[in-house]
Amino acid sequence: MSNAYSLAGASVHDIEAASGAVYRLLLYVPRMEVPDYLPARTMPGEGWPLLLMTDGNSCFGTAVDALRSQADYPKGTNIGWGVIAAVGYPTEEAYDPLRRSWDLSPPPGTSFPPYTPDGPPVRTGGADEFLDFLESRLLPFITARTKIDPARKSLFGHSFGGLFALHALFTRPGLFQKIIAVSPTIHWDDCAILRTEKAATFDLPVRPSIHLSAGEHEGERLAPFQEGNEDAAARLISKKTERTLAYAEEMAAKLAEPDGANLQTSFENLANHTHMSAPTPAIARAVQVAFSLKQ
């Protein structure tokens, strides 16, 4: 018996960027063949809605299962079928810390000591280059394989990925219609993203909407299981500097101001979750945001 596991409707593609870097695209397209007891699946006339996710190695399976378990029952879930495209790296691990540090952080960036003694320095600031790859290479790759509704493209990111999603919103607001930013590292680089937000304009026929969230234990208190740990004091200091929960909620409120960006925004406090556990419920919410039938 084979130990391999396959996910019906899913495929894996390694795609080379102009820089020579290779990305792994995990792609899910709904299957049209269904058992008799399920309703027929049909692609909308405009094409499938798309959920594009960063850190694809860590989130693809969760997102696809959240969609598969709900989309055949729209009267009970308000979720329809769509395409999930999760962008990651050629690795079997959940993350590639070195590459994501470059891809997901806004310019100008800097260089940090290696993660390992013999490793390369950690570089940041490659978000615009990564956005170029998504826009000029990845999205055309997807649309060449299945029809995508150009008015229903969503972008999901967590942590640095959440910061990247905000950067995409502020610098290329027409690329995605919905932004889902989870635990965004707004504090990064002395809150430089706030200066990017201040300079952003949204002169578009249809303005994008944004859903922000963060874990309850990304505020100024530790999770109960972290209290008493040897690193508790250091964690508390970091929390008060990073202000992940507060910055996310403040960003949602600021972007909704009628005299400001005047965007449709929402904010969610993910109860009982920390920075590293927040993605699991947030991915389920992203599926709802991206594939909802009635707004």
From TrEMBL:
Q: Name one Pfam family in it.
A: Esterase
Keywords, A to Z?
A: Hydrolase
Give a GO molecular function annotation for the protein. hydrolase activity, acting on ester bonds
**Sections of the chain in a coiled coil:** none
Whether Hydrolase counts among this entry's keywords is: yes
Protein family according to the UniProt entry:
Belongs to the esterase D family.
Its name, as the record gives it, is Esterase
Its ancestry begins with:
Bacteria, Pseudomonadati, Pseudomonadota, Alphaproteobacteria, Hyphomicrobiales
